[in-house]
Each structure stands twice: as C-alpha cells, then as structure tokens.
Amino acid sequence: MRVLAAMSGGVDSAVAAARAVEAGHDVVGVHLALSRAGGTLRAGSRGCCTIEDALDARRAADRLGIPFYVWDFSERFREDVIADFVAEYQAGRTPNPCMRCNEKIKFAALLERALELGFDAVCTGHYALLVDGPDGRELHRASDAAKDQSYVLGVLTAEQLAHTYFPLGDTPSKALVRAEAAERGLTVAQKPDSHDICFIPDGDTRGWLADKVGAERGQILDRAGDVIGTHEGAHAFTVGQRRGLSIGTPAADGKPRFVLEVRPVSNTVVVGPKEALATAEISGIRATWTGAPPAAEEFDCHVQIRAHSDPVSARAQWRSGGVTVVPDAPFDGVAPGQTAVLYLGTRVLGQFTVDATVSAVAVDA
Description:
The active site is at residues 101, 198. It is found in: Cytoplasm. The protein has 7 helices and 18 strands. By secondary structure, it is an alpha/beta fold. It has 3 domains: 2-183, 3-Layer(aba) Sandwich (Rossmann fold), CATH 3.40.50; 215-272, Roll (SH3 type barrels); 276-359, Beta Barrel (Elongation Factor Tu (Ef-tu), domain 3). The strands form 4 sheets. It has a 6-stranded antiparallel beta barrel. Strands 3-2-1-4-7 form a 5-stranded parallel beta sheet, sandwiched between helices. Strands 9-8-11-10 form a 4-stranded mixed beta sheet, with no helix packed on it. The N and C termini lie far apart (61 Å).
C-alpha cells in the first residue's frame, strides 16, 4: 500500500510513520506548512506547525529512510480554519479549530492531494481505531482512553475513513510510544505534546481576537436582563467562563457568576449561577456521519461535547435539517459552536455543531 504519512514533527506522527514502514508499506512523509509567518520557534509545549516542527519531522523521515516533503497549505488553513474561527466568535459561538483542521485540512485537502498522486491512504499519529464492520469501515475509540482522539476525528466521512490509517490506535499508552521512539533513535522521543491553539502560540486568545475583530465596551446582564457590569468585548467570553468577569457587585446569594450566553449583535454577555449552566437539550447544524446515517430518525446513543469530557447517554433525533439531542442527565455548560460527537458504544456515529441550547433551569429559579 502506498501511504502518505502526515508528519507534524511530534513523537506520535513519527512513530506512526515508523510503524507504516515496518509494516511493509511504501511510505512518503509530508509536513504541512500552515503559516507563512512561522519563523518564531515554539517555546515549551505551546503551539505546533512551526519551523522547529518541520525540522523535527525531516529528521524523523531521514532516520526512517523515507522521502520527505513540505507542502504549503497556509492559504487553505487561513481560509478554512482561522477565518472560520474568527467568524464563529463574531457570531457568539465557541469554535473548535482542531475539528475544522481535521475536517478541512488533514482529511480533505491533504487526502484529496494524496489520492490524486496515487496514494492509497493518509497515515497520522491520531489515537483512534479503525474497524472493518458489516457496512464498511468504522471509527472507534482508541485502546488508551486517556489519549483517545476519536472526538476530534468525528468529522470524518465514510469515504475518508476508507483511505485513513491510524497505526497508534491499539497502543495501550503514550509512554509506550515514547519508549518505542527512543528505541528507534527518533530525536522527538521526549518532545512535549503541543497545547493550545496552534495559530495562537502564546495562548492569549482574548488578545488575539481583539486584534482581529476589535474590542468594544458592552454590558453584562443577569438572567432578568438587569445591567450589573460592563466588559471590553463580547468576543472575549465563552459559555461557562467564570474568571475575568470583573463584576463589582456580588450576587445576592454570594455565589460566583458564570457566563450563560454571549450575544454578539448587542455586544452583551449574560451571567448567572452555575446551576443555570445545566443544559437540557442541544440542537445543531453541519451534521455529518462516519458511515451511513442512522436508519431511524430517533435513536439512543452517547454524546460527547468536549475532547476530554465524559460521554453522556442521550436520545438523538435527526432530520435533513439538523440534529437534536436530549441527554438523560443535563449537560454542563454547552456553548453554541461546540462540536457534539455521537457514539454507539465505542463507535463514532457522527457529529454536529451545536447551534442552540435549552437551559434546564428556569429564569426565575
């Protein structure tokens, strides 16, 4: 099998490429240049996709004895990931850029080019399992629950899964991957994992957004609509946030307040008690399925709303216009823009972008 190994410069993708070579595949390594202003080397574990990462990926490819290329996907990344991130915040939603990157870059743009060049599959260092089921290839959770990345892969389609290769999916732990890298002589064996948003390497999302969309003073409201404070820009807030509200007057019950809603049109932020974050229903758009859509319009499943949150049992209903989910127990603080991934056991069924939520707590509670 001809395999294009996406090599980020980290230990996972390096070991994944090594396993593909060891399995006898014809492997070519490629690093995606996602920024044309990537001259600043990463400090510590923040960020990814820097010049440092490209050099690390090249050293790993040289060690494995495979051809290596750097492909410039910066324009596509700017349009499909960064511009989408800004637009979502401007609309009062909380986006997940890693989901968009997997959807639009790693398993769309990259896979499209790979197939055009005659490759059979794209190999990555993601922790997830591919299982050949009765109706085609299925996406399942990884063996190592702590490293499972099936959530951020929930955007993949059946066609994309058919040309995807995850050599690390059945590895019991990340420690074993690092040990294997060291044994193979890969210099990235102890390289820190990347964190935060790759195109905001200093971690200052609020400052970065202020530069992109501007900052304008607005009002902070309680659930009754009364003004209780001001802010420097609604884009800086997300549902569930507690810190940084700067409300001078304490709540009547003395309890801390949390962001319940962001209203970009009026540039207002609604806050309230933690109990009001309980969400009784979510509905959304951009639904995709990792295989054929569910046979029934209503079905039981588990829903995960964050990359590292616990799945919640729920009842889902889907039609051509979108998906609605009612959890058996309320979700905690779901923000429009988040991705909800649906599971049946360990299998990923599909995903959608949350567009609306219904609180489990009445306004006057």
